[in-house]
């Protein structure tokens, strides 16, 4: 029979880190309660499964491009009570991903579009979906400067993921010369594959042709994006201005 150090060394070689990390606890638990072997063994296996799932979720988060782990439960819905709260929570169920549907979040700056998009994206990661989050204008510029082989690999990842989030689309109004064609390719390819997209933008769709410099391209993009799409309008006061005012008030009071 192996000693505990020998068992731990064996688990390390087998890359069973979840079992290794909890084995001592499970052994003491079984000894203290006269737990049947199969029950103890099933708990040990569950520890390994949980560890692997946790590591998979963390890897998918790291690869997604998200920089925050946000939830809708922590969002201040009372500040702008007219926001489409019910529809946001419906999207949070992720049924739209299974159905291959899209979501377009349009409205004033600072009203929570990016927050909601990120929260839904993070929920998708927790449910084992592959997600790509792009700050769109920054992505267009970086893509234009990348080597061709790197562009192709990056584009394939974007097209193949379960959920693509295009945040702050047309934030800078003008996009690089090939940005429109790239946007059209991403949306067209994902439309053919019935893979979901969330777009968040301060710009009304009627002006997209102006920002793209091509009304025909705009029509083509919107035709595919808006087919099977949830349209959410965000109106109200800016959360960022609210937070800035609160910070200023605290600093003034402290001084």
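Sequence proposed for the structure above (255 residues):
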């Amino acid at each position: 029979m192996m000693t505990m150090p020998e068992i731990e060394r064996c688990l390390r070689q087998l890359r069973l880190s979840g079992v290794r990390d909890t084995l001592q606890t499970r052994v003491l638990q079984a000894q203290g309660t006269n737990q049947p072997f199969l029950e103890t063994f099933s708990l040990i296996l569950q520890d390994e499964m949980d560890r692997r799932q946790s590591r998979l979720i963390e890897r998918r988060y790291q690869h997604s491009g998200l920089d925050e782990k946000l939830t809708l439960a922590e969002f201040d819905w009372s500040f702008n009570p007219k926001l489409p709260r019910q529809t946001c929570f419906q999207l949070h169920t992720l049924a739209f991903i299974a159905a291959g549907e899209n979501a377009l979040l349009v409205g004033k700056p600072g009203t929570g579009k990016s927050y909601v998009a990120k929260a839904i994206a993070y929920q998708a990661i927790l449910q084992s979906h592959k997600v790509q989050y792009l700050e769109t204008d920054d992505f267009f510029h970086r893509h234009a400067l990348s080597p061709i082989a790197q562009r192709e690999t990056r584009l394939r990842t974007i097209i193949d993921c379960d959920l693509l989030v295009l945040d702050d689309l047309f934030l800078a109004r003008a996009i690089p010369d090939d940005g429109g064609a790239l946007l059209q390719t991403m949306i067209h390819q994902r439309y053919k594959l019935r893979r979901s997209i969330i777009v968040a933008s301060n710009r009304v769709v009627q002006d997209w042709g102006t920002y793209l410099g091509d009304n025909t391209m705009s029509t083509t993009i919107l035709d595919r994006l808006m087919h099977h799409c949830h349209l959410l309008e965000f109106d109200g006061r800016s959360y960022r201005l609210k937070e800035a005012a609160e910070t200023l008030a605290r600093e003034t009071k402290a001084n």
